[in-house]
Amino acid sequence: MRRFKTSLLAIVVAASALAQTASEKPSVDVRRVGARLACQCGCKDSVATCSMLECSFSKPAKERIAQMQAVGMSDEQIIQAFVRDYGPGIYLATPNAWGWIVPYASVLLGLAMIWLFVKRFRKPKALAEIGPDPALEKYKDQIEKDLAKLE
Question: What are phi and psi of 83, to 5 degrees?
Answer without folding.
Answer: -65, -40
